[in-house]
Write a structure and sequence with these properties.
This protein is mostly helical. It contains five helices and no strands.
Length: 92
């Protein structure tokens, strides 16, 4: 095959840019990053700062742990919480 007949391989498609996290998602991660003296203090902060129930907070947080945008935003917190989740799952 001559050089003129050689077709270059197509460039790989660029990865789509990730949309930034919403304000609520960043607030959920910020609460998760804090150290709490007691569960009641955390539950109160969830209700006051986010306006949602602690159950809903944990649902949102669980989804964020699998979101690459959350990992990019706060890798220390996300990785710490992923390890804790993995330990709980392994213990069951």
């Amino acid at each position: 095959m001559s050089v003129a007949e050689h077709k270059p391989e197509p460039e790989p498609a660029p990865e789509p840019a990730l949309e930034p996290l919403s304000d609520r998602d960043r607030a959920v991660l910020a609460l998760a990053a804090r150290q709490w003296p007691a569960r009641a203090a955390m539950d109160r902060a969830i209700r006051e700062q986010l306006g949602i129930s602690p159950t809903r907070y944990h649902q949102l947080l669980g989804a964020l742990l699998d979101d690459p945008r959350a990992l990019a935003h706060d890798p220390v917190t996300v990785n710490r919480l992923r390890r804790a989740r993995d330990r709980r799952r392994a213990h069951r």
